[in-house]
Task: structure prediction
Amino acid sequence: MKSPAIVWFRNDLRIADNPALIAAARSGAPLVALYILDDESPGPWRPGAAAHWWLHHSLAALSQRLAERGVQLTLRRGRAQYVFDQIIAETGAGAVFWNRLYEPWAIRRDDEIIAQLREDGVEFHCFHESLLFEPETLRTKAGESFRVFTPFWRACLAAPPPDRPQQAPKSLHAAPLPPDSDDLDSWRLLPQNPDWAGGMRKAWLVGETAARAELADFARHHVADYRSERDFMGRVGVSRLSPHLHFGELSPRDVWHAISEPATIGGDAYLRELGWREFCHHLLIAHWDLPDRPLDRNFERFPYRDDEAALDAWRNGRTGYPLVDAAMRELWITGWMHNRARMVSASFLIKHLLIDWRKGERWFWDTLVDADLANNSANWQWVAGCGADAAPYFRIFNPALQGEKFDPDGAYVRRYVPELAGLDARYIHRPWAAPAEVLRAAGVRLGVTYPHPIVDHAEARQRALAAFESMRSQVALGSA
Result:
């Protein structure tokens, strides 16, 4: 009888179109399904509280899917290298199958594990599954990594199209004596006291089955209108697939083929967003310090401000700008934020408040269920003007105008800032401009039930532009 093979699940918590699982099943070896909660290797980028909430439910769903096919999911907590030593000793496994990760810490860890497996004479098989295109295969004509999205996306479209997704194995051959497993509840991934996850439980269904249903609904009912509807925060215009993709409950190939067949204008626009996800990973592979240092090193001289009171107001959705506050409360309640709202709220922190983008990046990391190191880092740098293909720093969103344009009836603000729900749409994005009688009729008392704006937009804009010019002057002096 063949020695067992370990299938190491990571951010691929599904059984359909899972190359590592499918290859291991085809090998004929009895399978040990393993998930390791490695709190040490990620260092400062261990998953945040919201991601831990999602992980708990996703692992429970994966465990059920595997059990239906006769395989137990073994859970172990600890440094992955040590856990592998234990599991191989307990099972006599002769091979390990896994799918690739792209975070710098994961690449370093996997290289160490591969070296140990080679030394021990254990086979290893590593597969590409979480991206459409391997980052190292896409290069400029000069042979370098891309720094601009449009030529990167052209290179993606010129490459061979992604393979069609593979079906889930109908049955699996389990090892006769699976190793002992930790109890999932003992990991305490869910909030204890207080239980802050009520809004997330209402907002999400977690796991592969739910993810596939969400994709089918989006492809059938919404993708055709995606290009025209995606910016409107109070409508159902986006897919909300990002956490399912991050945790691998769906493969990007699943999404690509569901959206591209048949081709539509809305589908093309959505696939371009999937391409931006690829671009962020391409950047992280090329620049391992992306989460911590600006790609444009000139921004290391930027005169950011330390203002804990303003940072706290932003985090808690108490800035006095209804669209920003709705965005930050949506994040806290649901663990997710609409993409347009992400841009506006991030721009407000960096440019209106002059607070370092890395402080916003950290907050999103802890509060987003779809927190992804590549996407989170690259997108914060994009808004800050210091990243690849970044928005110019002098592009400073006016939160009131953004709200009037992309939440014209105020539905988004009413949902997440209920103390303003009684305001007419003419004033809901700028309550400071409402006449006193309008505020009284709506039950709004500025400075009491809802804060005054913590900064004036026009003054904040001028201050941000002056800070940018100050940085440029320092750079010029430094290079003189």
About this structure: The domain at 131-163+207-286 is CATH 1.25.40.80 (Serine Threonine Protein Phosphatase 5, Tetratricopeptide repeat). The CA atoms of residues 212 and 463 lie 47 Å apart. The chain is about 50% helix and 5% strand. The mean pLDDT is 95.
